Amino acid sequence: MARRKESDRAQQNNDDSDSNPNDELEEEPDFDDPEGYEDDISEQDLMGDLIRQRPKETDGVESIVVIDGVPQVGPERIEKLQNVLKKLFQKFGKITNEYYPLNPDGSTKGHVFIEYSNASEALEVLKGTNGYKFDKNHTFTVNLLTDFEKYNDILDKWENPVPQPFKEQGCLQYYLLDQDACDQFSVVYEQGDKVAVYLNTQPEPSLLEERPRWTETLVRWSPLGTYLATFHAKGIALWGGEKFQQIVRFSHPGVQFIDFSPCEKYLVSFSPLADSRATDEPQAIIIWDVLSGLKRRAFNADKSQALPIFKWSHDDKYFARMGVDMLSVYETPSFGLLDKKSIKVQGIRDFAWSPTDNTIAYWVGEEKDTPARVTLLELPSRNEVRVKNLFSVADCKMYWQKSGDYLCVKVDRYAKLRKDKSDIKYSGIYYNLEVFHMREKQIPVDSVEIKETIQAFAWEPVGTKFAVIHGEPPSTSVSFYEVKTGQTPTMVKKYERKPCNQLYWAPSGQFIVLAGLRSMSGALEFVDTQDFTVMNTGEHFMATDVEWDPTGRYVSTAVSWWGHKELVEKRRKLMQEYEDLRKQKQEEYAEQRRRRIELRN
């Protein structure tokens, strides 16, 4: 901005002098505390969140863990015990020091102090070995040395929390009273700026609610449709009722993923940005009580595990997670370990709950001469109701039927195995489907061999059929099998050269959509599996998603902004590579042009 001339300044001063002398500014109020005033608000109450993040001077004990429950042995067996424990605990980091307290007679006291090179390694030990079953008589209890100071500072006098008044939310299941049984669906559009909820009426859907910037990323319905969850930088909000008022909110900064329990009693939120060091407590994964909005328990997250880390039983009574050589099952509402200890499973690779029973299916990989196996575990008794050994196994995928009548394990088998340093390479891959008949005596298992690559598998939700896409694109085939009591699954229909890569059964079975999504240009084919007639075909170009409504009357297809964004980014990179190559060749042509002209002459 240009500087004002001196004449302009003088003119302004004259104007100010001509103004009314009574127009004086009011005196500013005095914000000073009165003499003798003492503030009764502590810094902890005023800015506790900032104080917790204040850098602290470390005393070096953050990297020390205390292991209790260690076997008590005499002097002659101490060295052997040390070797066994060192082999176990050095998996989590570099051990710099270890101390075994001894009794006057030279025997161990049953606990050990181990120091690691840094605090993060000590946290990994806490997550991986707390509750570890060392043998049938000893289970480890692992704590950080700093935990003893934290627990020592607990107040002696406990003050009960003040009960909050009950808030009437109205009928949250009002949508079930719709005479035409029309369902609601939500749409996020205009690059996430708007969210709308529609009622699927005829001939056109009816708009129920539309709000700008209702969510910052995406929305998600609860399993029974009671709540609509929105994502925000500070946490999650649940909405419901006829006016979609806010029911409850959960504070979890940086949350990126949520998962409801099947009965909607609990909500699990995950934030990769949560820093547990700020509060000395786990913050990455939090389990909330939906009705009260209270935090029930928090956990650390393992970066190597895929989401969701916790998997729920069908009745919300149990939830489980997989660890290193163990399966941890927790019970509600105490949120403690079932029987106060994890289940030791050497080499566990994956697990899945039955949709209708408190039964877990898990599989264990091969180890030297020990074959892989699939185990059905009944809870809370921990009774192994069925074990199936598998040989030459590269990988397994487990698929439960929605009714819980069948379990299919897709087994990737190999003909040859070659170990290249730390990498394992398989050759001669072929596939088997192991079908468990859950409702029959002793749970018989049938095997179906498929030599081609399996692209997709899907059970009929209510029925006895399953569908498989196999082969290499674009020459993929779709085969339908039927499972009958006391018989091996039989193929009832095979479609050759079908351009599809996904299978979508209707909620009540019988009807299925064969979809060719993303790179297959959105080809759709509707099949009635009662007589295997093709009812209709269609195309939604570049479609990324297919969804049945709960009644099985409607199917929606969509081009997701997220999926489309990935495709656009991929094509942009290909175009950029093409432009770079074209520019490079043009420069080479320009450099060689004069030389070529000289050669021609």
UniProtKB/TrEMBL annotation:
Keywords for this protein: Coiled coil, Cytoplasm, Initiation factor, Protein biosynthesis, Repeat, RNA-binding, WD repeat
Domain of life, source organism: Eukaryota
PROSITE patterns registered for this protein in UniProt: RRM
Primary localisation category: cytoplasm
InterPro entries attached to this UniProt entry: EIF3B (IPR011400), eIF3B_RRM (IPR034363), Nucleotide-bd_a/b_plait_sf (IPR012677), RBD_domain_sf (IPR035979), RRM_dom (IPR000504), TIF_beta_prop-like (IPR013979), WD40/YVTN_repeat-like_dom_sf (IPR015943)
Gene name for this UniProt entry: EOG090X01UY
Coiled coil (residue ranges): 564-595
One cellular component term from this protein's GO annotations in UniProt: eukaryotic translation initiation factor 3 complex
Name of one Pfam family that matches: RRM_1
Name of the protein in question: EOG090X01UY
MF GO annotations: RNA binding; translation initiation factor activity; translation initiation factor binding
Ranges of biased composition (kind: Acidic residues): 15-43
Record localization: Cytoplasm
Keyword Coiled coil in record: yes
Ranges for domain RRM: 63-147
Region (Disordered): 1-43
